[in-house]
Amino acid sequence: MKDKDKGAGMLKKARFERIPDQKGSKSPSPTRAASSSPKRASSAKMSDSRPQSGKSKSPSPSRKSSAKSRSSSRKRDSISPGGKKSKSPSPNRKGTSSASSRGRSAGKKKVRVKSPSRTQSGLKIRDLSDQGLTAVPPNLLAEKDLGIVNLSGNNLKTLPPEITRWDKLEKLDLSKNYGLRRTKANDNTSLPQEILTLANLRELIISECNLQRLPTIIWQMTNLHVLDVSRNKINILVPEVGNLSNLRKINLKHTNITSLPPEIVYCQDLEEILLWGNKISTLPETLPELLKLKTLGLNYRDFCGQMDAMREKFLNTGQVKSDYIPQIVFDLPALESLDLEGTKINNMPETTNHGLRELNLSRNFLNVLPRSVYNLNHLTLLNLSDNQFSNLPDELGNLKSLMKLRLANNQIHFLPLTIGNLKNLKELDVSFNRLKRLPINIKGLRNLKYLHAEKNDLTAVPDEICELVELETLNLTENNIHTLPMRLHRLTKLKDAHVYDRYNKHGLWLYKNPLTTPPMEIWRTDKTEKIFDYLKKLAIIKTENLQRQKMLVLGESQCGKSTLMMGLVHGISLSSVEEDDKGRKSKQEDMEDKRRKSYDLEDKRRKSYGSNIESVVQEHGESQPESLPLTNKTEFIEQTIWKTENMVEFVINDFGGDDAYRISYPLFLDANALVLLVYDHSEYSKNTHQTSIGQWLDLLSRYTPGVAIKLVGTKIDLCEDFFAVEETEDLVRELVQEHLENYLGKLRMELGNVEKDLKEAKSSSNEEYVAHLGNLKEKLEYLISKPVKIIPEIATVSSQEGLPGVSKLVNSIELLAIDTELFPHGQRCIPDLWNKLRARLKRRSGYYLSWEVVEKVASLCHVKEDSLESALQYLHDIGEVMWFKNNPGLSKILFHKPRLLVDLITSLYHHNFEEFFNYDENKIFMSMGKFNKDTFNEAVEIFVKYGQISRPLLSCLWFNHRLTDCKFTELLELMPYLDICYTIPQPEVPTGNNIKLPLMVLPWFNKEMAENDLVEDFEKGPPENVKPITLEYKFPLRLPKGVFERISACLQDYVLSRIDWKNAVYATLEDANFLLLCSVSDPSSCNSITLMIKGQSETLPASSMRTITQVIANTLLKVEGLVWKIKAPKDAWLNQVIQFRKKDITTEE
Ligand SMILES: Nc1nc2c(ncn2[C@@H]2O[C@H](COP(=O)(O)OP(=O)(O)OP(=O)(O)O)[C@@H](O)[C@H]2O)c(=O)[nH]1
Ligand SMILES: [Mg+2]
Is the pTM of this model over 0.85? Predict the structure, then answer.
């Protein structure tokens, strides 16, 4: 019998199942078969003393009667295949009648299964069953290489001597040949002597041949592995069966035998003895000698025989002991399945059935189990239903292999707490008991699929049940439950409610409970969605102190992020935008329309977003300035505030996906935020994985380890059909999983390498290098423990009409926001003073506030010094301010109007420079910058090629900000702290031609590559005859985009002069020159950076080295998930000139 998980769990009547053998059995020693061991003698003794044995306690008489009544009530309630109804009101039934009728019709029709024509070993298979043959056809006898011959259902009387030709025959089926009948003991005609020549014959089927005696020749066929003699009324199995020393399976069903000869144990390889359909009264005492016997198929009920009511009553009340099941049954060491259902036992002896996988003790009078049962560590099924148990011991938790535990119809008041240890449990049936509550440890049953707790006294459902995410059925019918846990929606596999699946209650069942939450009109349903929606809403509404949270919307350019935000925030779909367009514009403008459609959408977005962002609008202090041409691509970041209908509030940062903006991402990434990682679901494939999802996971792993990520697939309207959407979803899941495993795999491999290096380094007395490796090891361990958290459920949406999937996404975002495991900071009680602080800070003018001002404002609001940091962190988390607490350069200033910071950066970075720097369309360039077309183009070229911006050009770029000279200078001073640029001091006397003179440099825009011979030039260059010291920074996970450029920007404060390339920096310092070079031409795929440094002489330029390495370290350390290893000469380590920890840079002497 196969173990079917599905449906099996819901069977009302206890069922007993076999699990296929998974254990290999050893062959016995040849001596064992014939020996008469002391054990055999002792088991014989035990059996003799049977009537006196009796260790079990008698069950209390009072329990018995109520057990019976509960049992009968349960039966009344159950649905029978015959169509008996359930007491529960009108539940839905699912496919029951059709299934049964299908079953019946299949039974009538005789289906002939076509057998394969060759065996696995390549021998022929010949099926001549049911052909009315009276003799074996000569052509069959002539055939060679026969492996299997099926002659069943014919009218053969014997086999001819020519069968000797079937020398390779492995299996012979002679069943249902009634002519083989044989009555006399010495009549061998049915099976000729020649059969003994078939040395390869392993399986002989001679069942249902009307034999009264088995042909004696069988007992000489010692090569047989399988012998089936079932359905022949032979009455007795002769001792000669012991000759078949290779026998593995013997089928003796319906043979009228009443016992087995003791000699059966000489068949030491026996794994299976089938005895069903016989009235077995005794078993040989020697049976436990069969060390491989897995299956003993017999009806154990026969042992208790016909029982009168009086005896049954005595057994029920424990006044007599039920010792009629032979002790040897409990001593079969390899037995896998023991079915004692309905054997009326009231005690069970200690067992040594160590191989037991299934134990069915249902429908008995048991109230206690022997201790040895709890040591059966292979047990996968334990059925104790319909007994008299009132409790179960803690040892139940030892049965770690259990997959099915059936305890229905007992009088159990409490489940032991150790039940939570049964990690493999898939089915737990505790219905029809007296449980008042389920233990909280139930949350340990992570694999549980079916939980039946019908008809108990449960007054509540523990919240922990919401952890059982595999649950498909939760039957709580007829209890005393008033409220369902609010997090029940986490049980995503619990989809149906009040339905039947093959006569069994399936899904969530709640009938006959005094439920008020949710109310009846909600819970009476056949889909749990309605119930879950209600509970979700309730959970959100009931969440106290829910603070506004930050949401980062990231993904490839044009994947549909901003369009989705329109749908999410305003319910506006793409088609409604198009409708609006049509209403407003004439036909002649069609061409123009198409060109500008994207701008309108952008305009619309801006307007709608704007209406929601009071604080953001206020930050400008005036209406939106005249805007330069817009495209439908987001420029850097669009910020908006979104409050859902259920009052969950977010500040959304919708990032422009274009590459141009990547350098500034890190400032706005935040590990406390919820990330929506958006990708185009219609275009997703293995090939596009890296660009659409992979690179974003990498980015987040580097900058925000541990961040929570919700994957959102857009444009499902462009997918072929529903199945394509689902298929892609599976692929996304698979590749994302693979991606993260690869990432962790790399970290683990690196950790292994570092540990090895560390061992070697420890013996080299190079302390500084050991410290560097130690740091690296800690970082790797930290990152391994903190991978990004991918929310398992992927949202698939479309921004077309109806916004399919969007409301579900809103729902799941709301739930994520109240998940305290993901966002522990999301619910906190905030002192009123902090809100006062917020208001006062916001009222301040300027782009940022110095720390002194912040402290002053705080003291005015009575926010004490020791809570100022927490207050600012809170305001940062809710998006009201930006405070870079861990950034040494920025930690002492506060961006109290984040929108202004965004605008400042946005004005420098554009994905569409050509469109943007259109001299003819923008009078600003002429009036502000005093450019003519040529000088303008020249200045622009210098900017887009080398990243150098002159003062007039910068004035144009910042035109929107309407800056006074003073403010201009203030911002210019601020910019380098953002690590994206450096400034160049200007001559004190204006030169007049400042149109090309660089004022600010953004290394990100530098497109010029270093020449190949740069290293050689550096080595030969001044000071000559000094060999450079070379340091290599190795990045096993590659350097994220923009990091090299940020190092380049940060070096500016410490160098006297410099030359920049896209992939290199050459600079001079007081006492040294250095060259910093990427390993490959593209810094974004660089896995190592080389630093070459030359002092004035051969001595180490210690001070310069410390400064440069500290600048590099400080920049790299801002990337929390980045790991790097420094390769440097030992001398440099010993002199401690290589900096790798976070430190302020101090210039020596
Ligand atoms: N068919 C279809 N088109 C969509 C959907 N969502 C967005 N689009 C189109 O995809 C294009 C890009 O959409 P955006 O929302 O601007 O993409 P984005 O991800 O914000 O792009 P960036 O701002 O550049 O990062 C636009 O032309 C939209 O009309 C959708 O669900 N279905
Ligand atoms: Mg966008």
Answer: no
